[in-house]
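Below is how a single chain appears once it has passed through the pipeline. First comes the sequence as given, then the structure the pipeline wrote out for it. We keep one example in the README because the format questions we get most often are answered faster by looking than by reading.
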Amino acid sequence: MRVLLDVSTLVALMWENHVRNARVEKWAKGKTLVLCPITELGFVRVSSSPAHNATVSEARETLADFIRDFSPEFIAADLRQLDTPAAPTSGKTTDWYLAELASKHGLKWGTLDGNASHPSALVV
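Resulting structure:
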């Protein structure tokens, strides 16, 4: 199964001190993980926030290590936002876009959001 990770799932997978790290690591086994520019940018942004306290350089290095060690697939963010259905709420715009992007590429969208209602959602 090929799965486009959302930002929260990628963060949980890559930071051992994340409360959901063990669950996401177990879930990820046997799946082909996929990243896109949005998930990579989001990872660096969240990782360099006070919640994880990494510098931007450390977050980029962690991402580079993950890519080197696990060889996730990469897809372009090649879908215009206006070519997707409107997200149900403003707070879901990025998630909805990622779900639509996953669907366009024949992927599932791996999320920690237990309330995700998109057909491509695969809740971790």
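Residues 2-123 form a domain with the Rossmann fold fold (CATH 3.40.50.1010).

See the next section for the split statistics.
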